[in-house]
Amino acid sequence: MDSFVYVLGTLGKNRYLTYVGWTHDVPRRLAQHNAGKGARTTRGRLWVLLHAERFATRREAMSREWHLKRDRKFRKELAQALK
Description:
Elements: E1 3-11, E2 16-23, H1 26-34, E3 48-55, H2 58-70, H3 72-79
Antiparallel strand pairs: 1-2, 1-3
């Protein structure tokens, strides 16, 4: 089953916020985040999908998620698209 890594973005009080996660179904997961049923750090905000990548295995997706969480420059560039 394909796995995906995704980056979400939202406008915080005075800055742009991003969230990185992995899933098997990106639209369903985005809907969960926006309904307040996602990760605790995403609750209460309206999120938009900024980026998604497909992988053949969950392990590959989780590895890429780990790297994206540490790549602040890449996430900052994606957040600029929210402007």
